[in-house]
């Protein structure tokens, strides 16, 4: 792409009135974002290549486009060739996006060339597309272990990750807009490596990364295929991969340094130093304490739905309200689904205190009514009041413990109960869930047993995860599972189930197996001390405050 001719006309900053002081800043993307403390964004991201080239930030978008093309061409992603007879090339599109710091300031301008993968034909242009990513629970568990044992946590980013995967299929791409080679307009790009937008791109990238790190003596974790560990006489190092973001955790800085050096020799990497933000979650380390915060994300949610006139609330769900199905027409169904999805990400990452409310509201996504929107506003109001809460892990508590609870049928219109469970390590929650049960429980005991079986399954997974990381003492002691149902405990300690329900019998056999293998031990706890209680039912203000603190959520 040719350099544009620069105008000799004197540039003047735009006047925004007496209430604003404006500055005209020129320079490269790195210079502007480094020297300007904050920027106010007046333009939306461009939708097309021509919009980007005619926008106010055209020189920054052009720099981002050139960086993307340098990565593609330098990586040997394609070669120009004639289109074979019978082959159909797929098109491409430029995607433009501004990236932001956790405080809301612009960090970078990104341009991505994306193939129109929706035009690919299954069985011809692609076959398998599955690619795993690390579980959020795995990331929280590794951070909790780091706080507990004082481990180093660094972060790296793979630049243009999907361009590293090799293709097994023969795919042709039209020359991208703005970069058609003069004199060879009729030729197409024969892809050698994968490109963003291709159906198989995530799978090919994960296979390439997997092969690369295992060749460096890393081994898979049996519980999570995106966690790799390596043990030497001097250090233990763990890699946690989420698409192109990775955490490198080690007992010694030498292990991190050697791992970074090896990865940089195989991929184009960006070293981000000590972890600061992962998946939009702010990570803050203070001495032996590590905190996870989504305060900026919550502020974005509140801004997005500010038209609801959100007021602050002390609890996420009104205990006096019984939400039922909407018998009338749906009220803003698409926006309702968007609100549920926005709250769900906060709930999955750092906010178990809203798990029950989000789970309950998500059951009415198809046909929401006015009462459901009021409940959504209440959850947002609670988040507004508690936006500064952080999930905190410390070195003071090295006990892994779990809690399970169930709420039997709470309304006549629904025959399914609600399960809830939560696990704590290093003083903070590492895994939790609030789900509507899939089968009918005929009593409180059966509902509690279904919840206990689900919690036992998660306990087994966490135990396998920790055992394979080799940062935990082996053999691991039994995980205490706290339950507030004495009838359920008596069934666990009874080797024979003599009931009529086959689905309860299967769960009884599973829990008994975990109990006999030493994976879990079931302990009675009062309902007022059960941390899974707020995951199954709405609580009063005082109980919400107490359980929230016990989960590890603390103010900044």
Automatic annotation (TrEMBL):
CDD domains: RNase_HI_RT_Ty1. It comes from the Eukaryota. This is Reverse transcriptase Ty1/copia-type domain-containing protein. It holds the Pfam family RVT_2. Residues 75-316 form the Reverse transcriptase Ty1/copia-type domain.
């Amino acid at each position: 792409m040719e350099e544009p001719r620069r105008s000799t006309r004197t540039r003047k900053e735009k006047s925004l009135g007496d209430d604003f002081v404006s500055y005209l800043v020129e320079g490269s993307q790195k210079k502007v974002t480094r020297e300007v403390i904050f920027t106010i964004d007046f333009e939306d991201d461009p939708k097309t290549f021509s919009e980007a080239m005619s926008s106010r930030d055209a020189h920054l978008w052009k720099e981002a486009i050139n960086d993307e093309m340098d990565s593609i061409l330098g990586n040997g992603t394609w070669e120009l060739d004639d289109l074979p007879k019978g082959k159909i090339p797929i098109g491409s599109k430029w995607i433009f996006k501004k990236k932001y710091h956790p405080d809301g300031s612009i960090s970078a301008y990104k341009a991505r060339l994306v193939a129109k993968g929706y035009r690919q034909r299954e069985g011809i242009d692609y076959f398998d597309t599955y690619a795993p990513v690390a579980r959020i629970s795995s990331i929280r568990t590794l951070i909790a272990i780091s706080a507990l044992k004082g481990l180093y946590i660094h972060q790296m980013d793979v630049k243009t990750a999907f361009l590293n995967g090799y293709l097994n299929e023969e795919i042709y791409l039209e020359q991208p807009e703005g970069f058609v080679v003069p004199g060879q307009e009729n030729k197409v790009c024969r892809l050698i490596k994968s490109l963003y937008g291709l159906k198989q791109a995530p799978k090919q990238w994960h296979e390439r990364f997997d092969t690369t790190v295992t060749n460096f003596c890393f081994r898979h974790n049996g519980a999570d295929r995106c966690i790799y560990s390596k043990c030497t006489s001097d250090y233990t190092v763990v890699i946690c991969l989420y698409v192109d973001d990775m955490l490198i955790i080690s007992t010694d800085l030498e292990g991190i340094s050697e791992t970074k050096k090896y990865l940089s020799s195989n991929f184009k990497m960006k070293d981000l130093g000590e972890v600061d933000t992962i998946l939009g979650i702010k990570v803050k380390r203070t001495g032996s304490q590590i905190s996870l915060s989504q305060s900026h994300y919550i502020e974005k949610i509140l801004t997005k739905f500010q038209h609801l006139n959100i007021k602050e609330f002390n609890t996420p769900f009104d205990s006096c309200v019984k939400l039922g199905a909407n018998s009338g027409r749906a009220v803003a169904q698409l926006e309702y689904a968007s609100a549920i999805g926005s709250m769900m990400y906060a709930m999955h990452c750092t906010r178990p205190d809203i798990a029950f409310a989000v789970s309950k509201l998500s059951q009415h996504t198809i046909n929401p009514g006015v009462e459901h929107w009021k409940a959504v506003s209440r959850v947002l109001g609670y988040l507004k009041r508690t936006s500064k809460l952080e999930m905190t892990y410390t070195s003071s508590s090295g006990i892994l413990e779990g809690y399970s609870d169930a709420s039997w049928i709470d309304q006549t219109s629904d025959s399914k109960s609600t399960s809830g469970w939560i696990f704590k390590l290093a003083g903070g929650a590492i895994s939790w869930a609030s789900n509507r049960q899939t089968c009918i429980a005929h009593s409180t005991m059966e509902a509690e047993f279904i919840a206990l079986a689900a919690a036992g399954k998660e306990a087994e997974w966490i135990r396998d995860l920790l055992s394979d990381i080799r940062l935990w003492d082996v053999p691991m002691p039994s995980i205490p599972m706290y339950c507030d149902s004495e009838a359920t405990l008596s069934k666990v300690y009874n080797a024979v189930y003599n009931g009529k329900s086959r689905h309860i019998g299967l769960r009884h056999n599973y829990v008994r197996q975990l109990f006999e293998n030493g994976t879990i031990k079931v302990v009675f706890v009062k309902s007022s001390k059960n941390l899974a209680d707020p995951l199954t039912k709405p609580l009063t203000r005082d109980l919400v405050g107490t359980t929230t603190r016990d989960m590890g959520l603390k103010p900044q």
